[in-house]
Amino acid sequence: MITLTLNVDHKPFKLSVDESIPSSGITAIFGRSGAGKTSLINAVSGLVAPQSGRITLGDKVLFDSDAKIDLAPEHRRIGYVFQEARLFPHMSVEKNLSYGQPNEDKAKFGEVIQLLGIEDLLKRHPSALSGGEKQRVAIGRALLSEPELLIMDEPTASLDGPRKQELIQYLLRLATSLKIPVLYVSHSLDEILQIADNMLILNEGQVVANGPLLEVWGSAPMRPWLSTREQSALVTAKLIGHHPIYGMTQLDLEGETIWVTKVDDAKGSMLRLRIFANDISIVKSRPTDTSIRNILPAVIEEVCRAECDENASGYCQVVLRIGNQRLLANITQWAVDDLHLLQGDSVFVQLKGVSITKGDLAQENKNF
Ligand SMILES: Nc1ncnc2c1ncn2[C@@H]1O[C@H](COP(=O)(O)OP(=O)(O)OP(=O)(O)O)[C@@H](O)[C@H]1O
């Protein structure tokens, strides 16, 4: 567990945090510009000293104002990857990588360069690397310093679209291999959906949400970030097999079947699915003659939450529960009235579209 209790006072801006974060997985730090994301990670890494507070990483106390503990950044065992790679320009990639490695662990060096796909770049200098390659080297250098925490501050920010996507694929490989926690600052919700396990949202120096991504995604502080068209729920489902004839994969969501376009993940993999509120319709009895493959029983948990904007568009949001997971549906107020949809009703949801945002959630891998 990482505990973050801290107050940073840059008058007039004040950052005030009292949270804990799991000691494994990727925690995305999200919020608008000036919300305090960089101030938070700078306090954790020791670049900024909070006025008061206590920051711990497992059993290790990094900062404690009462006990007058303030470990220097170099003693915190934190790997830092910035928006720009910040490699030493006069050193080869190989030298850049080994620079911060405390002991010459060749096996580990080999593992890291292979994971990040930088084996062929070792003899080059940073000036001969693309932006994405530089970032991969910077990540490798941070990992080889044997950190107990990795902080990435918008590592894809300086990259163009295709390079961003390429780096994300490497980050995904990393995510399944790393056994240390990662704090990942990002402005991109798409990126967060692909790689994060947890999410902490900052607003004007205060934490407005913190927890597993699936929970935070469905929470009230997320709503202002998503337009009606983007409103969606995240669920996890298990891959159980493939259709014998059609190119479809069968998933299990709380004992119910969902069919998605064929994916290559192994049987038993846990996949994260994003289901848009506009892609769900509600019926009271199970339809038979329909082109829609995914029809699941659900219970209405809430009708017309705060988003219900009957005056403006006539649409409102219905929260539905399938086992322990929730879906959102945007439907018209007219349909709600016509079907007499009420909290607690058993209905069926028809899913017109399902996208997979992250595969292999439970994959076990090497340890470094
Ligand atoms: N050393 C400082 N002295 C005074 N104010 C500061 C200092 N560092 C940051 N701030 C202010 O604190 C607020 C939060 O800044 P911070 O860089 O943490 O935000 P952020 O969420 O990382 O923003 P961005 O996404 O734009 O990087 C801003 O209003 C900023 O001007």
UniProtKB/TrEMBL annotation:
Gene name as annotated: modC
Name listed for the protein in its UniProt record: Molybdenum ABC transporter ATP-binding protein ModC
A molecular function (GO) term: ATP binding
Keyword presence, NADP: no
Any one Pfam family match given in the protein's UniProt record, by short name: ABC_tran
UniProt keyword Ion transport present: no
Domain Mop: 289-360
Species name: Grimontia kaedaensis
Keywords: ATP-binding, Cell inner membrane, Cell membrane, Membrane, Molybdenum, Nucleotide-binding, Translocase, Transport
InterPro entries documented for this protein: AAA+_ATPase, ABC_transporter-like_ATP-bd, ABC_transporter-like_CS, Mo/tungstate-bd_C_term_dom, ModC_ABC_ATP-bd, Molybdenum_import_ModC, Mop_domain, P-loop_NTPase
All residue ranges annotated as the ABC transporter domain in the record: 3-229
PANTHER family to which the protein is assigned, alphabetical: ABC TRANSPORTER I FAMILY MEMBER 10
